[in-house]
């Protein structure tokens, strides 16, 4: 028979209430008590019943992640999947498992007329103990209003702007894009194309500002014709690459504000007979698995999605014990591979 909470209490030599306090991560639990109970839990391979725990208290033991439905579905339709979602889930799941929580991923139709009614019904039905908000929902006033009205704690992922609402975990997208642009300038590039992401995402705006900031810092003028709008998909990157590389004064380097669009640029270059990196250097942003295995392997900014999701989940789970911890900044890494070199 599976072990019960009574078995855990007996082996640990403590009361059932003490076991419950440890399992529910309540504040003011001594390290000695926590170690005793955890040893008993591990020895008995005890797995609490989610339904029993929910009935026993006010906690649902659920953490929900709200993800933009349009972009996620577009990636799946294109056959590319969603690496962002995979990394987000992994980071959050690791922390949920440690705490005995479950993760629920919900696709949210950003800007849909039914958004308020649907999310309100979802929160009433599931009663999640906390919500991870991904862009663009992390900055949507409607979503934030709904969560606050329902007294649901939330963490805004990838939110570099302090709105004075909820907790947040982010990386400096603007500085990362400035560093990547400066890297291209350091290689000797002077006309650098840029493929922007959708304006609804604050990270897209930050990356564009970083690109412009680096140009200005190095005395280079921002040329509007070198900036092409994209939507974070491979197809939009291919279209942007065709537009930039078909111009008589094509750039010697192109920086796409995510890897999927950068791979689209590489595809466009191959179709047009433009060698990369011989005639055009290409770089991206995210460091998805496909960046490492593309031809040539892609220079990019490593966005620590899993680390940010893990930090955000810990923040939700520990909010009662550490209410002062409301912001965490995670470092990025510039990864140089074979898709960039000095201009020929």
- Rounded Rg: 24 Å
Identify low-pLDDT runs: none
- Terminus-to-terminus distance: 71 Å
Order of strands, main sheet, comes to 2-1-3-4-5-11
Global shape: elongated
Number of discrete helical segments = 14
Number of strands: 12
Mean pLDDT across every amino acid position: 90
Residues in helix, %: 40-55%
Biggest β-sheet: count, sense, barrel? Answer: 6 strands, parallel
Strand content: 5-15%
| SSE topology string | HHHHEHHEHEHEEHEHEHEHEHEHEE
Sheet/helix structural class: alpha/beta
Word description of this protein:
The radius of gyration is 24 Å and the shape is elongated. It has helices at 5-12, 16-23, 31-44, 50-56, 69-77, 83-99, 115-126, 141-149, 173-187, 202-217, 234-245, 259-272, 289-293, 305-317, and strands at 62-68, 102-108, 130-133, 154-157, 167-170, 192-196, 227-229, 253-256, 281-283, 300-302, 327-329, 333-335. The protein is of the alpha/beta class and 344 residues long. α11 (234-245) packs across α12 (259-272). 46% of the residues lie in helices and 15% in strands. The model has no long low-confidence stretch (mean pLDDT 90). The longest helix is centred in the N-terminal third of the chain and has 17 residues, at 83-99. It contains 14 helices and twelve strands. Strands 2-1-3-4-5-11 form a six-stranded parallel sheet, sandwiched between helices.
């Amino acid at each position: 028979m599976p072990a019960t909470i009574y078995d855990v209490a007996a082996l640990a030599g403590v009361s059932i209430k003490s076991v419950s306090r440890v399992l529910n991560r309540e504040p003011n639990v001594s390290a000695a008590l926590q170690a005793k109970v955890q040893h008993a839990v591990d020895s008995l391979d005890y797995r609490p019943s989610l339904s029993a725990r929910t009935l026993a208290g006010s906690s649902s033991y659920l953490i929900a992640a709200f993800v933009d439905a349009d972009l996620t579905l577009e990636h799946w339709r294109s056959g590319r999947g969603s690496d962002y979602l995979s990394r987000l889930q992994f980071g959050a799941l690791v922390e949920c498992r440690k705490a005995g929580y479950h993760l629920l991923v919900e696709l949210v139709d950003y800007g849909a007329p039914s958004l308020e009614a649907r999310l309100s019904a979802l929160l009433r039905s599931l009663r999640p103990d906390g919500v991870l908000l991904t862009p663009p929902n992390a900055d949507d006033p409607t979503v934030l209003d709904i969560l606050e009205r329902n007294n649901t704690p939330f963490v805004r992922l990838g939110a570099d702007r302090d709105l004075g609402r909820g907790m947040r975990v982010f990386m400096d997208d603007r500085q990362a894009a400035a560093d990547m642009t400066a890297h291209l300038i350091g290689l000797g590039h002077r006309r650098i194309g840029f493929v922007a992401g959708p304006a609804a995402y604050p990270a897209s705006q930050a990356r564009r500002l970083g690109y412009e900031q680096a140009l200005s810092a190095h005395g280079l003028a921002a040329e509007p014709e070198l900036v092409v709008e994209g939507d974070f998909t491979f197809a939009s990157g291919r279209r942007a690459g065709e537009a930039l590389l078909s111009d008589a004064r094509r750039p010697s380097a192109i920086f796409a504000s995510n890897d999927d669009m950068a791979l689209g640029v590489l595809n466009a270059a191959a179709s047009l007979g433009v060698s990369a990196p011989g005639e055009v250097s290409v770089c991206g942003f995210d460091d998805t698995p496909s960046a490492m295995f593309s031809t040539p392997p892609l220079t990019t900014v490593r966005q620590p999605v899993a680390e940010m999701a893990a930090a955000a989940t810990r923040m939700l789970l520990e909010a009662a014990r550490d209410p002062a911890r409301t912001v965490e900044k995670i470092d990025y890494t510039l990864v140089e591979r074979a898709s960039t070199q000095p201009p020929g």
